[in-house]
Amino acid sequence: MSSEYLLPCPCGQSLLVSKSQAGQSIECSCGQTVAVPTLRGFAQLQTADSTTNSPRSSRRYTDRSPQAWNPVRGLISALSLGLLALCLYNVSYFGYWYNQLDLRFTVADEIKAGEEMIDSMPVGDTWNFYRNLQDSALGNRRLPPFMEAQLNGKYYIEQMTKYGLIAAGLGAIALTAILWPKKK
Q: Where are the chain's structural domains?
């Protein structure tokens, strides 16, 4: 007994199916989706024999499961996964630099360190230090290192949050493109 059967399509063609396709849907060349019967339903189908040489009935149609890929789905998945990898790289980059910051110092610590430095200077060096500050008119002001570290820390956290949210959105798009069922 043959293991292949002829499944009639409403357009008049006969589709070649096997019992391994029971319960699935296949697509005819006319574009219609035809449901393959269950194993019990195969008893009503005509078996495909070697005498059938008609091109309409001898054509084998591939199984198209609901998760079939198409170029658009592949492109969306590839782009979103690539951008997801880029965002995760940025999150780890800013996380690394955030961990390198020394955020232990405060304003009080900075004042205390400055006072200790001035107290340890000889009188002449203290006077020269003061004159240099006066001559430059306290000119080009720069933030103390602890404040610079705190500002950099805030920036790194903002960047990690931004890229983390973008990564979550791209991950959702990629999963949707991969797992979304094909329209019937």
A: 4-58, 71-179
